[in-house]
């Protein structure tokens, strides 16, 4: 009991926030679909591996080697789609999904944590000036960090100012004061 009390006391004396990361900075975003994306990709990979190991057994038991070449091509094509195309497609669609986003105030850099092809976390570091907003809204892209597409949900930022700074909305205004005055003068005429 004394050990657990000491552990609690040590944790409560810590000066850093539980959302800070010593290397990446302050946590500004956490994706709510991180576990779902990981689970779907893991399920897809595991079924693909299962298909690869079961393929010889299925070919032996089904006698497909005796059938025509067209039937063999159709069978192998169908198995190939589920074995290879599905995991690759899932990876392409979800590779830019940001599971966590950290921000370092002092150097104005972000670190986006995503999943790579082997389901490990991958860190992408970029400056705010590297953020490009696509001209045309894309389905799985909120912004580009350098050339890599990233997907975030703006409503999941606890502080909306963090999202505004990430996207550069705090630096450029759509209407400058002079433009607003010109519009008012044009309306008076």
TrEMBL record:
The keyword Iron belongs to this UniProt entry's keyword annotation: no
Domain of life assignment: Eukaryota
Residues covered by region (Disordered): 1-24
Alphabetical UniProt keywords: Membrane, Transmembrane, Transmembrane helix
GO biological process annotation, one example: mitochondrial proton-transporting ATP synthase complex assembly
Residue stretches of biased makeup (Polar residues): 1-17
GO CC list: mitochondrial membrane
Signal peptide: none
One of the Pfam families matching this protein, by short name: TMEM70
Coiled-coil intervals: none
Membrane-spanning ranges: 42-60, 72-94
Membership in a protein family: Belongs to the TMEM70 family.
Protein name: TMM70 protein
Source organism per UniProt: Alaudala cheleensis (Asian short-toed lark)
